[in-house]
Amino acid sequence: MSMFCYQCQETAKGTGCTIAGVCGKTEDVANMQDLLVYVTKGISILANIAREKGIENEEVNKFVFDAMFITITNANFDRVAIIKKIKQGFEVRDLMKKEIEKAGISLPEKMHSSTTWFSNDVAEMERKSTLIGILSIENEDIRSLKELLTYGIKGMAAYAEHAFNLGYQNEKVFAFMQKGLAATTEEKSVPELIDLVMECGKYGVDVMALLDKANTESYGNPEITEVNIGVGTNPGILISGHDLKDMEQLLKQTEGTGVDVYTHSEMLPAHYYPAFKKYCHFVGNYGNAWWKQREEFETFNGPILFTTNCIVPPKKDAGYLGKIYTTGAAGLDGAIHIPNPAKGQDKDFTAIIEHAKICKPPVAIENGTIIGGFAHNQVLQLADKVVDAVKSGAIRKFFVMAGCDGRMKSRDYYTEFAKKLPNDTVILTAGCAKYRYNKLELGDIGGIPRVLDAGQCNDSYSLAVIALTLKEVFELNDINELPIVYNIAWYEQKAVIVLLALLYLGVKNIHLGPTLPGFLSPAVAKVLVENFGIEGIGEVDADIAQMTA
Ligand code: FSO
Ligand code: SF4
User: Fold this and answer.
1) Model pLDDT for residues 455-484, shown as the tens digit of each residue
2) How far is the CA of 25 from the centre of ligand 2 (A)?
3) Which atom of ligand 1 is nearest to the CA of 495?
4) What is the pTM of this model?
5) Residue-wise pLDDT tens digits, 286-335
6) Cis amide leading into 339 (omega within 30)
7) Which atom of ligand 2 is nearest to the CA of 8?
8) How many CB atoms lie within 10 A of CB 456?
9) How many whole angstroms separate alpha carbon 508 and alpha carbon 480?
10) For a substitution probing ligand 2, which of 2, 5, 76, 496 has the most ligand atoms within 8 Å of its CB?
11) Which domains does the chain have, with CATH numbers?
């Protein structure tokens, strides 16, 4: 076995990628990512010791969330960039040690090897990377819980980074991330690890609330919006991923250049924000969920900017080779990386803008509009209408179908499910899962569309706010008494933190598909089933009958 990774839903055979990633991650990239996580754990151990004495270091906090974000599925395939990050990790670790020494704190004699292991030699790094991976934890339940915790922290890291980019941070979130990572290096019992996983859910809620605040205070509350899915006549830049700060800066820098801007996949909800609507060259959304990019990028014609995952490494003969740009935590061998600016300065998107100017305009792959913008503020403005519809029986049930899309054929389930849902039901969605049904003609109920898109995967927080508010309005004791069913599709680690956040909020009986995580050992899966009623999915008709009952 040359690598081992089982962090996402598409893991080989549902158990683990061992030769190469289904995602396109090669063995050397996978192993270097493991080493980056290992070094980040060492930094976290030291940061926890320092924090106990009141030392908080912004550089350490930034390194930890950025390093973890880099290792999320489909975010960074650039081995050289990952090695560079590991080396930066050694410097950050030394910095932490110096601060600890300066404060007169003596470190324990015996510490985890991740706090001391060092090599700048790539061959030695490769050797080490094969020794510290996931399978180095022998007990499968302990391994399962430690990885579940690590993946929750990866998701949290992504959201913390987006909030940070907008000038928002929560030191308690950073402290938990580092505490959790350090805990994965310690001897812990199953109950102790379950407690940490639950605590992870609490900080998942906090980080999503922070990002919601950052997004809405920076760009306004999302509003009901019709988004064009056709094309204009100018050359364009396609922006993918989730980072709204990048979105803002790209729109500013392209204004008046003759280059249009289109969103792709999870960037679609940028159209819902008032601050971005003023740009006439912000034309529309091009294409569908991330996994269709190999076809759709060919016809876009212009350059593509990845601000985060999900990247599918292009084929060797792809026509769009040389047109991919990455920034932030994203990376791809052969792509042009736009670096982070110095503090207080803007990112410089000149290279991609100049590139776009010499490209042909995009070719339309569809026409018309789709509707979205149903985040908590907008939905709560419609609260009276929604409550009346529930009371009159016009709306029988809400189906939360948030989460991710993916390439597996079994995800056709979600399109079928949406089509077959009775007409008196409404789908609440967020994340790229929506592309399975957001272009279907599902109609409306008294003017309320039957698919309400709150936004990106992190905007699943909005769906929780809506549920908690409805619980108050209907004067219920328990969120599970609401007429809301959760049928969630997951793919990568941001969905893991969303799931843990929902569990923390007390949501029970969540259906999770298309398959349960391969990283859950039978015993850990049993705990989730027994305590939270988590279930997989089955056949569409039978599931609808059960869930609408
Ligand atoms: Fe999708 Fe990818 Fe947003 Fe994920 S584009 S799969 S959960 O990165 O983050 O929903
Ligand atoms: Fe496999 Fe998913 Fe890991 Fe990629 S991220 S190597 S597909 S388990």
Assistant:
1) 999 999 999 999 999 999 999 999 999 999
2) 7
3) 7
4) 0.98
5) 999 999 999 999 999 999 999 999 999 999 999 999 999 999 999 999 99
6) no
7) 2
8) 30
9) 7
10) 5
11) 1-136 (1.20.1270.20), 225-357 (3.40.50.2030), 376-547 (3.40.50.2030)
